TrEMBL record:
SUPFAM superfamilies noted in UniProt: Aconitase iron-sulfur domain
Cofactor field: [4Fe-4S] cluster
Chain sites annotated for binding [4Fe-4S] cluster: 287, 345, 348
Protein known as: 3-isopropylmalate dehydratase large subunit
Cross-referenced Gene3D superfamilies: Aconitase, domain 3 (3.30.499.10)
Species of origin: Methanoculleus bourgensis
Pfam families assigned: Aconitase (PF00330)
Annotated pathway: Amino-acid biosynthesis; L-leucine biosynthesis; L-leucine from 3-methyl-2-oxobutanoate: step 2/4
HAMAP family linked: LeuC_type2 (MF_01027)
EC main group: lyase
Assembly behavior: Heterodimer of LeuC and LeuD.
Keywords, comma-separated and alphabetical: 4Fe-4S, Amino-acid biosynthesis, Branched-chain amino acid biosynthesis, Iron, Iron-sulfur, Leucine biosynthesis, Lyase, Metal-binding
PROSITE patterns per the UniProt record, alphabetical: ACONITASE_1, ACONITASE_2
Enzyme Commission number: 4.2.1.33
């Protein structure tokens, strides 16, 4: 029997295959490089523009004249080529694609390493380089080496103040940052069904932090219901009795609030071990934890209180922002003294809107805490939304209370 990757790619692990790509996207950073590569290839007419997306999310709004000029060129190219454009303010590429565009069984390529996020829908979704993306745009296809698969056997349910982000940090710590290189991670077991779609996106998002090629859930009733809300019909698909390269057991009921300490994502501690660490900034958002479920959780914790440290909240998409406005979630966040930035990646990549100064410390809900990532000399701790909210109120890393 086949793993999910083998089913979708149509070959056993280890084989090389050429496959059509159902959806492909680049953002305002990699899109510039992909467009230049297309020029060098001499490609002007794209065979399948209906499968392609340009999504402005990394530096929005533009921070310099140079950035603005490059984005303007990409806008013109999108209009002339027929490529779908999500302009500045639309949201993060992975979130935009998750809002009714990706379906189970698809092959999805994105010119961003966290494209594995979209495996939450039962798709094979993986990141590629800008030159590879240009080749996909030019031909509609690419090659893959079918990855071996590691099964993450989930049991139990999250409890207390633990969140899917804590479970993600737990498995990254177990596997290590190189422990799943060019493998697919399959989230299976009785515990998988109890994880919300937003939680699944978080768990798949961090697969690449172990070196994995993809992170995947099987489509089930949760998947079908979520896609139906976006006007998309889908069918569930159950795991088969297949052979995995390795199986890792994770009891969700054992998960507690965790934090990745600088400067590696797999250097993980229980929050209570580092509680009291002074911080200068809290950042809530990114493709890992900027969805509505995240913003609503943060708002519940800070409602009626005031943050003690500068706190930046960035919705993952315009749809998330609109829902947060309609439900009063955004008002609670603003009333607590937080800043709200336009949908996008925000300061995650260290380009603008919240960059750290020398020696400053940020508690972030992002996925990476590499040295200098959010600003030269800055330090990053990675944690859940609940931990971020508790820490924002305390002005130091704090253990979240049970909701």
């Amino acid at each position: 029997m086949s793993t999910l990757s083998e089913r979708i790619l149509g070959a056993p692990a280890g084989e090389y295959v050429d496959r059509d790509v159902d959806l492909a996207f680049a953002h305002d950073g990699t899109g510039v490089l992909a467009r230049e590569a297309l020029r060098e290839m001499g490609v002007e007419r794209l065979p399948h523009p209906e499968r392609l997306h340009l999504i402005f999310d990394h530096i929005v709004p533009a921070n310099t004249g140079t950035t603005a000029t490059l984005q303007a060129e990409l806008r013109r190219y999108a209009r002339s080529s027929g490529v779908a454009l999500s302009d500045a303010g639309g949201g993060i590429c992975h979130q935009v694609m998750s809002e009714g565009l990706v379906r189970p069984g698809m092959i999805v390529a994105g010119a961003d390493s966290h494209t594995c996020t979209l495996g939450a829908f039962g798709a094979f979704a993986t990141g590629v380089g800008a030159t590879d993306m240009a080749a996909i745009w030019a031909s509609g296809a690419t090659w893959f080496r079918v990855p071996e698969t590691i099964a993450l056997q989930l049991s139990g349910r999250l409890s207390g103040a633990a969140e899917p982000k804590d479970a993600a940090l737990a498995y990254v710590a177990k596997l290590g940052m190189e422990g799943a290189t060019y493998r697919a991670l399959e989230f299976v077991g009785d515990g998988a069904a109890g994880v919300s779609m937003d939680g699944r996106l978080t768990l798949c998002n961090m697969a690449v932090e172990t070196g994995a090629k993809a992170g995947m859930f099987y489509a089930d009733a949760t998947t079908v219901s979520y896609l139906a809300e976006h006007g998309v019909s889908a069918s569930p698909e159950a795991p088969e009795d297949c052979r995995y390269e390795r199986e890792v057991d994770i009891d969700l009921s054992d998960i507690v609030p965790l934090v990745a300490i600088r400067h590696r994502v797999d250097t993980v501690r229980e929050v209570e071990e580092v509680a009291g660490t002074q911080i200068d900034q809290v950042f809530v958002g990114t493709c890992t934890n900027g969805r509505y479920e995240d913003l609503a959780r943060f708002a519940r914790i800070v409602r009626g209180k005031k943050v003690a440290v500068r706190t930046l909240v960035v919705p993952a998409s315009r749809a998330v922002l609109a829902r947060a406005i309609a439900t009063g979630v955004l008002a609670d966040i603003v009333d607590a003294g937080c800043m709200v930035a336009p949908p996008g990646c925000g300061p995650c990549l260290g380009a603008h809107m919240g960059v750290l100064g020398e020696g400053e410390v940020c508690l972030s809900t992002a996925n990476r805490n590499f040295k200098n990532r959010m600003g030269v000399g800055g330090e990053i701790y990675i944690a859940s939304v609940a931990t971020a909210a508790a820490s924002a109120l305390a002005g130091e890393i704090a253990v979240p209370e049970v909701a």
